[in-house]
Amino acid sequence: MSTDHSQYFRTPKPRPIRPPKLHHATFMTLDVDAMVAWYELVAGLQPVYYSTQAAWLTNDEANHRIALLALPGTKPPVDKPHSAGLHHTAFEYDNFDEWLDNYERLRDAGIRPEICLDHGMTMSMYYADPDGNGVEIQVDMFGDWKLSKEWMWASQEFAADQIGPQFDPDKLAAARADGLSAEEIHERTRRSEYLPDQPRPTVTFDDPWPARIAADPAIADGVPEPTK
């Protein structure tokens, strides 16, 4: 890999006069129904349009935030956790209590995060959807994007460690029930006081596809072409 820096390394980065905002992400899938059900439960995304081979979902005023396509010829991924591409999408709560309440709601529905990390500017729980795509549910611990952005680029703490300590969300829920504030819990999490009993060795997600294909070998054939 070349070690040459890009032309923007130490020069002002050109910007559009009015930069566009990120609007949505689109996923290829083999099972639209399972993905629609999961995203509605986890992130409140409801379908605006829904068919057997496609769905467009939103949880705000936009016409869609997630699109799901089961196009003919779509095949299961190979070695998904170690393939180049999108690692995860992310959704943010406005405050710590709503964020932790959501964890408890999903936990009681049998959905648990794969890994939980305190990045410093955010506390984040990472889930995996039915296709093995990562979904981060986060809360900004500064409560102000300007402040959290400044902390990211200015702090030696983030420069030294962009991942941060892992945490057990049940321990956070117990600390809140004991009367600790969000700020106190965040500080203790940064000091690694709420580590899981068995920390996850990597930030990659498990690959669901080998087990799915073993259970139903026809999945390996992908989405069939339409019959004429």
From TrEMBL:
<dbReference type="InterPro" id="IPR037523">
    <property type="entry name" value="VOC_core"/>
</dbReference>
<keyword id="KW-0223">Dioxygenase</keyword>
<dbReference type="InterPro" id="IPR029068">
    <property type="entry name" value="Glyas_Bleomycin-R_OHBP_Dase"/>
</dbReference>
<dbReference type="GO" id="GO:0051213">
    <property type="term" value="F:dioxygenase activity"/>
</dbReference>
<dbReference type="InterPro" id="IPR050383">
    <property type="entry name" value="GlyoxalaseI/FosfomycinResist"/>
</dbReference>
<feature type="domain" description="VOC">
    <location>
        <begin position="21"/>
        <end position="140"/>
    </location>
</feature>
<feature type="compositionally biased region" description="Basic and acidic residues">
    <location>
        <begin position="183"/>
        <end position="194"/>
    </location>
</feature>
<keyword id="KW-0560">Oxidoreductase</keyword>
<feature type="compositionally biased region" description="Low complexity">
    <location>
        <begin position="206"/>
        <end position="221"/>
    </location>
</feature>
<feature type="region of interest" description="Disordered">
    <location>
        <begin position="183"/>
        <end position="228"/>
    </location>
</feature>
<dbReference type="InterPro" id="IPR004360">
    <property type="entry name" value="Glyas_Fos-R_dOase_dom"/>
</dbReference>
<dbReference type="Pfam" id="PF00903">
    <property type="entry name" value="Glyoxalase"/>
</dbReference>
<protein>
    <submittedName>
        <fullName>Extradiol dioxygenase</fullName>
    </submittedName>
</protein>
